Amino acid sequence: MRILVPLLVDVVLVILFCAIGRRSHEEAVLAGLLRTAWPFAAGLALGWLGALLLARRTADAFDGSALWPSGVLIWAVTLAGGMALRAVSGQGTAFSFVLVATGVLALFLLGWRAAVSALG
């Protein structure tokens, strides 16, 4: 459960975040999901790469389900990267959206890690 399962959980949760957002704005979920999800999926990939490189640099055993430092780094880079890519691709980055995305992505990407840590 060190890499593959946590990565798949994160991917599903990022897609779910985007689908919920589209649905809450009464937009066609499947029709535009790729357009909405790709910036955050790319941010997620960068976050995972950063977490893997950090573990390698510090000679720590990597655990993708760890809340600290992996989870926090993955969440922060997913959020920042997703917002940056949305901005350069002409998608919205309204302040209210940034706040909602910050909270929901924290709940999703950090929440399951906190639960695993508490139960483990």
Would you write up a description of this structure?
- This protein is mostly helical and 120 residues long.
- The protein has one domain (4-119).
- The chain has helices at 4-24, 29-57, 67-88, 95-119.
Could you say which overall geometry the principal axes of the C-alpha atoms support? globular
Residues in β-strands, percent: under 5%
Q: What distance separates the N and C termini?
A: 12 Å
Helix vs. strand class: mainly alpha
Largest sheet: none
The residue ranges in which pLDDT falls below 50 over 5 or more consecutive positions are: none
Distinctive features:
single chain; 120 residues; mainly alpha; 0% strand; membrane; transmembrane helix; DUF3054
